[in-house]
Amino acid sequence: MNRIGKFITYLQEQDESMKKVWVFLLSGVSMALVVALWVVYLNLTIAKIGEPAIAIKEKQTGTQESSAQAGLLFANFKNNASAISKNFSEFIAGILNRENEIIIK
Q1: Which of 2, 40, 59, 91 has its CA 20 to 30 A from that of 16?
Q2: Which residues contact 49 (CB under 8 A, 6 or more apart)?
Q3: What is the DSSP letter of 14?
Q4: What angle do CA 40, 43, 47 make, to 5 degrees?
Q5: To 5 degrees, how large is the angle CA 11–CA 3–CA 14?
Q6: What is the tens place of the pLDDT at every residue in 1-25?
C-alpha cells in the first residue's frame, strides 16, 4: 500500500474531531495553493499585456514602471467590473421582466 493509502486508512481510524482537523488543514492548504497559482497567473498575464503600454507611457511621461503597472491593473479591473455589472444587470432585468405563471391544482 502506498503512502496516500496508508494516510487515508489512518484517517478512517481516527475520531471525528481529528477528521475535522485534517479537513480544515487540507482545505486551507488547497485554497492557499489555488490562490498562489492564481496570483502567479495574474502576474504573468498582466506582465505580458502591460509591457508595450508601459513602455509607451514611460516614453511619453517619464513615469516609473510600477505606477504604470498599477494604472493598468486598475484600468483592467475597472473594465472587467463594468462588464460584469452590465451582464448582471441585464440578467436581473430579464428575470424581473418575464411573466410568471402560477398553476394551482
Answers
A1: 2
A2: 72, 76
A3: S
A4: 145
A5: 10
A6: 689 899 889 989 999 999 999 999 9
Distance CA 68, CA 50 (A): 9
Residue tagged 513615469 (cell numbers): 63
Q: Which three cell numbers, joined as nine digits, stand for 100?
A: 410568471
Rounded to whole angstroms, how far apart are CA atoms 32 and 30? 5
Cell 451582464: give the residue: 87
Q: How many Å separate Cα 46 from the centre of its chain?
A: 14
- Residue 87 to residue 29: CA distance in whole angstroms: 33
DSSP 98: S
CA 92 to chain centre: 23
Question: For residue range 25-81, what is the model confidence (pLDDT) as tens digits?
Answer: 999 999 999 999 998 888 777 755 555 555 555 555 555 555 555 666 677 777 777
